[in-house]
Amino acid sequence: MSERNTMRSWAHKKGWVIPILLCVSLTANILALILPFLEIDEVFHAKVIYSLPHSVHLMWEHKLYIISFLILGFSIIFPFVKISALFAAWFLPWKSTTRATFLHWIELLGKWSFMDIFVVILLLALTNKQTMITSKIHIGVYFFVGAITLSMITSQIILGIARKIVAEEEGEHTYCPKRHWMLFEQLYIGWTVPLLVIVSAAALIDSIHATFLRISQFLLISRSYSIYDTIELLQANKHWVLFIIVVGSMVFIPLIRLALLFVIWIIPMKVKRHIQGKMILEAMSRWSMLDVFGIALFLVASEGKDLVKTEIQPGLYTVVIAIGLSYLLGFVAVTLHSVMIKFATSHQDEVL
Selecting from 1.10.3470, 1.10.10, 1.10.287, 1.20.140, what CATH number does the domain 1-172 have? Predict the structure, then answer.
C-alpha cells in the first residue's frame, strides 16, 4: 500500500535543485507579465507596445474573443497554477500513485501555454514587410518562452521522480525475458502502427510545405504562408528563439518521435526496453506542438480578420489531417503497447 510521503525528503540533499528551478521559472513568468511583449503599429493609429496582459486586451479590442480567453487561461493563469501545483507535489505529503497521476495531467497541459507564442509568430508573419501594419516582439516574449520551457523541463523531472517513487514502493517487476515483436502481436493488428507512422510522416512533411493562409486585405500586400514560409521568415528576421521553437516542436521532434516509434515497432525488444521506449515517446509528445500551432492557426484564421483579413487555403486542411493522424497514431500505439506490457507482466507473475 502506498504511503504518504514528500518528494523533498526522498530526494535528500539534491532536493533543493527543484525549488530553485521552480523559483527561476516563477520569476521569469512574473517578468514576462511586466516587460514589453508585443508592439503593433497601424497606419492612422498610435504605435502601441503591449505587455502580456495588455495583449489580451489587444485581442479583445480586435474582437478576437476566443484568442483573448485562451491567452488569459493558458499563458497568464495556468503557468502560475502549474508552478503552485509543482511546489505542492514536491513539498506536501501525497499518496505516491495519486501524485504521479496528478503530475501526469499537469504535464499534459503544459505545452498549451505556447499557444500565445504561436499566435505572435503568425502575427509576425502576416504583418511582415507591410506598410499599413507592422508588429515587433519585445523582451517579454523571451522571458515567457524561458519560463514556460523551464517549467516544462522541471515538471518532466518531477514526474520522472514521482514515477520512480511509485516503482520503488510497488517493488521491482520481473518481466518475461522473451523479446516482443510489436509488428505481429495483439491479434496481428500491430502492423497498423508502422503503416500509420509512414502516413503520418508523409502528412507532416506535406503540412510543412502546404499553404494555409493568404492575406486578402485592401492596401496590404497579398502573400500566402506555410509553416516552411514562416520558418524562412523567422530566419531572415533573425528571430532565432522563435525559429528554434517552430523547427524543433513542429519538424524535428515530431519526425524523431515517428522514427523512434517505427523502430520500437519493427525490432523485437524485451519488455523493459519497451517500457523505456514508451516513456521516451511520451516525453517527446509533450514537445511536439503541431496541434498547439493548429489551434493558434485556426483562431487567427477565424477570428483575426479584424486585424489582418485572410483567406483560408487548402493547406490548412492538410495541417488538420496531420494533427488528426498524429492523435490517431498515438491512441493506437499507446493502447497496443500498454496491452502488451500488461499481458507480459501478468503472465510472468503467474509463472512465478
Answer: 1.20.140
**If DSSP states are collapsed to H, E and C, what string results for the chain?**
CCCEECHHHHHHHHHHHHHHHHHHHHHHHHHHHHCEEEEEEECCCCCEEEEHHHHHHHHHHCCCHHHHHHHHHHHHHHHHHHHHHHHHHHHCCEEHHHHHHHHHHHHHHHHHHHHHHHHHHHHHHHCCCCCCEEEEECHHHHHHHHHHHHHHHHHHHHHHHHHHHHHHHHCCCCCCCCCECHHHCCCCCCCHHHHHHHHHHHHHHHHHHCCCEEECCCCCCCCEECHHHHHHHHHHCCCHHHHHHHHHHHHHHHHHHHHHHHHHHHCCECHHHHHHHHHHHHHHHHCCCHHHHHHHHHHHHHHHHHCCCEEECCHHHHHHHHHHHHHHHHHHHHHHHHHHHHHHHHHHHHHC
pLDDT at residue 217, rounded to an integer: 83
Please state the domain extents for the chain.
1-172, 175-352
- Prediction pTM value: 0.90
For the cut 60, the answer to whether the pLDDT of residue 1 exceeds it is no
Q: Which of 80-94, 267-281, 330-344 has the lowest mean pLDDT?
A: 330-344
Q: Is the pLDDT confidence value at 175 over 70?
A: no
